[in-house]
Amino acid sequence: MATTGSRVDPFMAFRFQVRLDDLPVGGFSDCGGLTVETEFLDYPEGGVNDHLQRFPGRSRQQNLVLKRGIADRDLWDWHDDLVHGVVRFRSGTVLVHDPSGTRTEMQFEFRRALPVKWTGPDLSAGNGAVAVESVELAHHGLERRT
Questions:
Q1: CATH superfamily of 16-43+51-144
Q2: pLDDT tens-digit map of 102-138
Q3: 87 with 112: CB under 8 angstroms?
Q4: Looking at the record's lineage, which domain of life comes first (predicted)?
């Protein structure tokens, strides 16, 4: 008798949560920039003409981009403080949950983030869309915990 294998479905991208240190948990509609890229250095070794030696160099992370419907001033105030010389680093977590929302499937932690860009809503009297703000965070490292 054949045994059935266990099915492993990919994680769904719609059930996630973003936490930032002392700010209230944000109901973000989008989270982008979970990217780490390692540059490689090419070295043309003498006498080896069929390829270049390649060595890993520094790794860099992209800025995180968070979008949400405007509900309060917290993100604006954080960026505005930075504009006026008040530097307040915040660390945070991006949690990806299972479809039921009860179990964390993936957890990314970022450290010492600063808001480098705040974008306000596109306003139009001709539609009933939600006013959405975006904040871009530069950070000092991204780690996957689970």
A1: Hcp1-like (2.30.110.20)
A2: 899 999 999 999 999 999 998 988 888 889 999 999 9
A3: no
A4: Bacteria
Supply the DSSP string of 3-30, one letter for each residue.
Answer: PPPPP-PPPPSS-EEEEETTSPPB--SE
Contact 92, 18 (CB under 8 A): yes
Tokens of 135: 């904040």
> Token pair of 117, please?
């860009």
Question: Is-contact 36 59, C-beta < 8 A?
Answer: yes
Structure token digits, residue 89: 């680093």
Q: Is the pTM of this model over 0.90?
A: no
Tokens of 54: 């390649």
Say how far apart CA 10 and CA 83 lie, in whole Å: 41
Residue 19 burial by Cβ neighbours in a 10 Å radius (0-12, 13-18, 19+): middle
Q: Are 141 and 108 in contact (CB under 8 A)?
A: no
Q: How far is CA 14 from CA 34, 39, 47, 101, in A?
A: 15, 31, 53, 10
CA atoms of 68 and 9, how far apart (whole Å): 28
